[in-house]
Amino acid sequence: DVEAARAERQRACLAADQARREYERARQLAAESIMSEDLLEKAESARDTSSAACKAAEAQEARFAAAVNLARVERRKTTLIAPFDGIIAELSVEVGEWTTPSPPGLPIPAVLDILDPSSIFISAPMDEVDSASIRADLPVRVTVDSHRGEEFPGMVTRVAPYVLDLVEQNRTVEVEVELENAEFAATLLPGTSADIEVILEERTDVLRIPTGALMEDNRVLVLVDGVLEERQLEIGLRNWNFTEARSGLSDGDKVVISLDRVEVADGAEAVEAGEDEE
Prior knowledge:
The chain is of the alpha+beta class. It has three domains: about 1-75, Helix Hairpins, CATH 1.10.287; about 120-200, Elongation Factor Tu (Ef-tu), domain 3; about 205-278, conserved putative lor/sdh protein from methanococcus maripaludis s2 fold, CATH 2.40.420.20. It has helices spanning about 1-30, 35-75, 180-185, and strands at about 85-90, 110-115, 120-125, 140-145, 150-160, 170-180, 195-200, 210, 220-225, 225-230, 235-240, 240-245, 255. The strands form four sheets. A five-stranded antiparallel sheet has the order 3-6-5-4-7. Strands 8-12-11 form a three-stranded antiparallel sheet, with no helix packed on it. Strands 10-9-13 form a three-stranded antiparallel sheet, with no helix packed on it. β9 and β10 (about 225-230) form a beta hairpin. The chain starts with a helix and ends in a 23-residue tail after the last strand.
Protein backbone atom coordinates (compact mmCIF):
# COMPACT_ATOMS: atom_id res chain seq x y z
CA ASP A 1 0.00 0.00 0.00
CA VAL A 2 0.97 3.67 -0.03
CA GLU A 3 2.25 3.72 3.55
CA ALA A 4 4.53 0.71 2.98
CA ALA A 5 5.82 2.23 -0.25
CA ARG A 6 6.51 5.50 1.53
CA ALA A 7 8.44 3.71 4.30
CA GLU A 8 10.46 1.76 1.72
CA ARG A 9 11.28 4.98 -0.12
CA GLN A 10 12.46 6.63 3.07
CA ARG A 11 14.65 3.60 3.93
CA ALA A 12 16.15 3.37 0.43
CA CYS A 13 16.86 7.08 0.19
CA LEU A 14 18.45 7.17 3.66
CA ALA A 15 20.69 4.28 2.60
CA ALA A 16 21.54 6.14 -0.60
CA ASP A 17 22.46 9.24 1.37
CA GLN A 18 24.67 7.17 3.68
CA ALA A 19 26.39 5.50 0.71
CA ARG A 20 27.05 8.90 -0.86
CA ARG A 21 28.72 10.18 2.31
CA GLU A 22 30.83 7.02 2.58
CA TYR A 23 31.95 7.42 -1.01
CA GLU A 24 33.00 11.03 -0.36
CA ARG A 25 35.12 9.91 2.62
CA ALA A 26 36.62 7.04 0.60
CA ARG A 27 37.51 9.43 -2.23
CA GLN A 28 39.33 11.74 0.17
CA LEU A 29 41.21 8.81 1.74
CA ALA A 30 42.13 7.46 -1.69
CA ALA A 31 43.44 10.90 -2.66
CA GLU A 32 45.73 10.75 0.36
CA SER A 33 46.77 7.18 -0.58
CA ILE A 34 45.24 5.89 2.65
CA MET A 35 42.58 3.75 0.88
CA SER A 36 43.12 1.46 -2.12
CA GLU A 37 41.45 2.01 -5.49
CA ASP A 38 39.52 -1.25 -5.09
CA LEU A 39 37.80 -0.01 -1.94
CA LEU A 40 37.07 3.32 -3.64
CA GLU A 41 35.42 1.53 -6.53
CA LYS A 42 33.31 -0.56 -4.13
CA ALA A 43 32.19 2.63 -2.35
CA GLU A 44 31.31 4.22 -5.68
CA SER A 45 29.37 1.11 -6.74
CA ALA A 46 27.50 1.09 -3.41
CA ARG A 47 26.64 4.77 -3.89
CA ASP A 48 25.25 4.24 -7.39
CA THR A 49 23.30 1.15 -6.37
CA SER A 50 21.74 2.89 -3.38
CA SER A 51 20.87 5.93 -5.49
CA ALA A 52 19.12 3.72 -8.06
CA ALA A 53 17.23 1.91 -5.29
CA CYS A 54 16.08 5.28 -3.90
CA LYS A 55 14.75 6.37 -7.31
CA ALA A 56 13.01 3.01 -7.79
CA ALA A 57 11.35 3.36 -4.38
CA GLU A 58 10.21 6.89 -5.23
CA ALA A 59 8.69 5.63 -8.49
CA GLN A 60 6.96 2.77 -6.66
CA GLU A 61 5.47 5.21 -4.15
CA ALA A 62 4.25 7.44 -6.99
CA ARG A 63 2.59 4.44 -8.69
CA PHE A 64 0.80 3.47 -5.49
CA ALA A 65 -0.33 7.07 -4.92
CA ALA A 66 -1.64 7.30 -8.51
CA ALA A 67 -3.55 4.04 -8.04
CA VAL A 68 -5.14 5.38 -4.86
CA ASN A 69 -6.15 8.63 -6.58
CA LEU A 70 -7.63 6.67 -9.49
CA ALA A 71 -9.62 4.53 -7.06
CA ARG A 72 -10.93 7.68 -5.36
CA VAL A 73 -11.98 9.15 -8.72
CA GLU A 74 -13.75 5.93 -9.70
CA ARG A 75 -15.49 5.81 -6.33
CA ARG A 76 -16.72 9.39 -6.74
CA LYS A 77 -18.32 8.33 -10.02
CA THR A 78 -20.53 5.93 -8.10
CA THR A 79 -21.95 8.80 -6.03
CA LEU A 80 -24.62 10.98 -7.67
CA ILE A 81 -24.64 14.55 -6.36
CA ALA A 82 -27.63 16.75 -7.13
CA PRO A 83 -26.60 19.99 -8.88
CA PHE A 84 -29.34 21.87 -7.03
CA ASP A 85 -31.83 21.51 -4.18
CA GLY A 86 -34.98 19.82 -5.38
CA ILE A 87 -37.50 17.01 -5.17
CA ILE A 88 -36.95 13.48 -6.49
CA ALA A 89 -39.77 13.03 -8.98
CA GLU A 90 -38.88 9.57 -10.25
CA LEU A 91 -36.37 6.87 -9.28
CA SER A 92 -35.73 4.16 -11.87
CA VAL A 93 -33.41 1.91 -9.81
CA GLU A 94 -33.57 0.24 -6.43
CA VAL A 95 -30.99 -0.46 -3.75
CA GLY A 96 -28.67 -3.25 -4.89
CA GLU A 97 -29.28 -2.81 -8.62
CA TRP A 98 -26.46 -2.06 -11.07
CA THR A 99 -26.58 0.69 -13.64
CA THR A 100 -24.08 1.88 -16.25
CA PRO A 101 -23.59 5.03 -18.32
CA SER A 102 -25.60 5.16 -21.50
CA PRO A 103 -23.56 3.91 -24.49
CA PRO A 104 -23.37 6.16 -27.58
CA GLY A 105 -26.52 5.97 -29.68
CA LEU A 106 -28.44 3.89 -27.12
CA PRO A 107 -30.13 6.10 -24.52
CA ILE A 108 -31.25 4.49 -21.28
CA PRO A 109 -33.57 5.93 -18.61
CA ALA A 110 -32.02 8.31 -16.11
CA VAL A 111 -31.32 6.93 -12.66
CA LEU A 112 -33.51 9.63 -11.16
CA ASP A 113 -35.34 12.81 -12.13
CA ILE A 114 -35.00 15.86 -9.89
CA LEU A 115 -37.39 18.81 -9.99
CA ASP A 116 -36.57 22.30 -8.80
CA PRO A 117 -39.89 23.76 -7.58
CA SER A 118 -38.37 27.23 -7.53
CA SER A 119 -37.82 27.28 -11.32
CA ILE A 120 -41.26 26.35 -12.66
CA PHE A 121 -41.93 27.77 -16.13
CA ILE A 122 -44.45 27.23 -18.93
CA SER A 123 -43.39 25.86 -22.29
CA ALA A 124 -45.91 26.36 -25.10
CA PRO A 125 -45.90 25.94 -28.89
CA MET A 126 -46.87 29.01 -30.92
CA ASP A 127 -47.75 28.93 -34.60
CA GLU A 128 -44.81 29.83 -36.79
CA VAL A 129 -46.82 32.64 -38.45
CA ASP A 130 -46.68 34.51 -35.13
CA SER A 131 -42.94 34.01 -34.58
CA ALA A 132 -42.00 37.39 -36.03
CA SER A 133 -44.22 39.19 -33.50
CA ILE A 134 -43.20 37.31 -30.37
CA ARG A 135 -40.09 38.30 -28.43
CA ALA A 136 -38.73 38.02 -24.93
CA ASP A 137 -40.13 40.38 -22.22
CA LEU A 138 -43.62 40.56 -23.76
CA PRO A 139 -46.43 40.31 -21.16
CA VAL A 140 -48.54 37.16 -21.09
CA ARG A 141 -51.86 36.05 -19.65
CA VAL A 142 -51.80 32.49 -18.36
CA THR A 143 -54.68 30.17 -17.55
CA VAL A 144 -54.10 26.89 -15.73
CA ASP A 145 -56.47 23.93 -15.87
CA SER A 146 -56.09 23.32 -12.14
CA HIS A 147 -57.26 26.91 -11.41
CA ARG A 148 -60.21 27.38 -13.73
CA GLY A 149 -61.62 30.86 -14.13
CA GLU A 150 -58.40 32.57 -13.05
CA GLU A 151 -55.79 34.42 -15.08
CA PHE A 152 -52.20 34.90 -14.03
CA PRO A 153 -49.78 37.51 -15.40
CA GLY A 154 -46.45 36.36 -16.76
CA MET A 155 -43.68 37.26 -19.17
CA VAL A 156 -42.02 35.64 -22.17
CA THR A 157 -38.49 34.67 -21.14
CA ARG A 158 -37.36 32.74 -24.22
CA VAL A 159 -38.33 32.25 -27.83
CA ALA A 160 -36.76 29.22 -29.51
CA PRO A 161 -34.39 30.12 -32.39
CA TYR A 162 -35.86 27.41 -34.64
CA VAL A 163 -39.17 26.00 -35.86
CA LEU A 164 -40.35 22.54 -34.79
CA ASP A 165 -41.62 20.40 -37.65
CA LEU A 166 -43.50 17.51 -36.06
CA VAL A 167 -45.80 15.19 -37.96
CA GLU A 168 -48.46 15.27 -35.25
CA GLN A 169 -48.85 19.07 -35.26
CA ASN A 170 -48.32 22.22 -37.28
CA ARG A 171 -44.94 23.92 -37.54
CA THR A 172 -44.48 25.75 -34.24
CA VAL A 173 -42.03 27.85 -32.26
CA GLU A 174 -41.49 26.92 -28.63
CA VAL A 175 -41.98 29.77 -26.15
CA GLU A 176 -41.09 29.77 -22.44
CA VAL A 177 -43.03 31.87 -19.94
CA GLU A 178 -42.47 32.62 -16.26
CA LEU A 179 -45.26 33.71 -13.93
CA GLU A 180 -44.88 36.98 -12.05
CA ASN A 181 -45.98 35.31 -8.81
CA ALA A 182 -43.08 32.94 -8.12
CA GLU A 183 -44.67 31.67 -4.89
CA PHE A 184 -47.79 30.60 -6.77
CA ALA A 185 -45.71 29.07 -9.57
CA ALA A 186 -43.92 26.90 -7.01
CA THR A 187 -47.27 25.37 -6.03
CA LEU A 188 -48.02 24.13 -9.55
CA LEU A 189 -47.30 20.50 -10.31
CA PRO A 190 -44.84 19.99 -13.18
CA GLY A 191 -46.73 18.77 -16.23
CA THR A 192 -49.87 20.77 -15.45
CA SER A 193 -51.75 21.88 -18.58
CA ALA A 194 -51.78 25.62 -19.20
CA ASP A 195 -52.66 28.09 -21.97
CA ILE A 196 -50.85 31.33 -22.66
CA GLU A 197 -51.93 34.47 -24.49
CA VAL A 198 -49.07 36.73 -25.53
CA ILE A 199 -50.09 40.40 -25.38
CA LEU A 200 -48.63 42.19 -28.38
CA GLU A 201 -50.52 45.45 -27.84
CA GLU A 202 -53.12 46.87 -25.45
CA ARG A 203 -55.77 49.55 -25.93
CA THR A 204 -58.25 50.99 -23.46
CA ASP A 205 -61.61 52.72 -23.88
CA VAL A 206 -62.43 51.03 -27.18
CA LEU A 207 -65.55 49.31 -28.45
CA ARG A 208 -65.24 45.53 -28.47
CA ILE A 209 -67.42 42.55 -29.32
CA PRO A 210 -67.10 38.83 -28.64
CA THR A 211 -64.89 37.33 -31.34
CA GLY A 212 -67.46 34.54 -31.82
CA ALA A 213 -69.96 37.12 -33.08
CA LEU A 214 -67.87 37.84 -36.19
CA MET A 215 -69.00 36.30 -39.45
CA GLU A 216 -67.07 35.99 -42.68
CA ASP A 217 -65.42 39.18 -43.99
CA ASN A 218 -65.73 40.85 -40.56
CA ARG A 219 -69.51 41.13 -40.68
CA VAL A 220 -71.93 41.01 -37.72
CA LEU A 221 -75.67 40.91 -37.19
CA VAL A 222 -77.26 43.65 -35.10
CA LEU A 223 -80.80 43.62 -33.70
CA VAL A 224 -82.55 46.84 -34.75
CA ASP A 225 -86.28 47.28 -33.95
CA GLY A 226 -86.89 43.53 -33.96
CA VAL A 227 -85.07 42.86 -37.24
CA LEU A 228 -81.57 41.51 -37.79
CA GLU A 229 -79.38 43.93 -39.72
CA GLU A 230 -76.01 43.02 -41.19
CA ARG A 231 -73.13 45.43 -40.56
CA GLN A 232 -69.65 45.57 -42.07
CA LEU A 233 -66.98 46.26 -39.45
CA GLU A 234 -63.52 47.68 -39.47
CA ILE A 235 -61.73 45.71 -36.81
CA GLY A 236 -58.57 46.37 -34.84
CA LEU A 237 -56.95 44.28 -32.14
CA ARG A 238 -58.39 40.82 -31.56
CA ASN A 239 -57.84 37.63 -29.61
CA TRP A 240 -59.79 34.44 -29.01
CA ASN A 241 -62.29 36.22 -26.77
CA PHE A 242 -62.78 39.78 -27.99
CA THR A 243 -62.31 41.90 -31.11
CA GLU A 244 -61.97 45.67 -31.32
CA ALA A 245 -64.63 47.33 -33.51
CA ARG A 246 -63.19 50.54 -34.96
CA SER A 247 -66.22 51.38 -37.07
CA GLY A 248 -69.61 49.93 -38.02
CA LEU A 249 -71.01 49.77 -34.48
CA SER A 250 -72.03 52.19 -31.78
CA ASP A 251 -71.98 51.79 -28.05
CA GLY A 252 -75.18 50.03 -27.01
CA ASP A 253 -75.82 48.17 -30.29
CA LYS A 254 -77.22 44.67 -29.74
CA VAL A 255 -74.89 42.24 -31.54
CA VAL A 256 -76.01 38.67 -32.23
CA ILE A 257 -73.70 36.07 -30.75
CA SER A 258 -75.81 32.94 -31.46
CA LEU A 259 -75.00 32.17 -35.09
CA ASP A 260 -75.48 28.40 -35.04
CA ARG A 261 -78.93 28.37 -36.71
CA VAL A 262 -79.72 28.84 -40.42
CA GLU A 263 -82.63 31.22 -39.77
CA VAL A 264 -80.31 33.69 -38.05
CA ALA A 265 -79.66 35.89 -41.07
CA ASP A 266 -79.92 39.44 -42.37
CA GLY A 267 -83.56 40.62 -42.42
CA ALA A 268 -84.90 37.96 -40.09
CA GLU A 269 -87.23 39.00 -37.31
CA ALA A 270 -85.89 38.38 -33.82
CA VAL A 271 -86.15 39.46 -30.23
CA GLU A 272 -83.49 39.85 -27.61
CA ALA A 273 -82.78 36.78 -25.51
CA GLY A 274 -84.71 36.91 -22.25
CA GLU A 275 -87.86 38.36 -23.76
CA ASP A 276 -91.06 36.36 -24.05
CA GLU A 277 -90.45 35.35 -27.67
CA GLU A 278 -87.47 34.51 -29.84
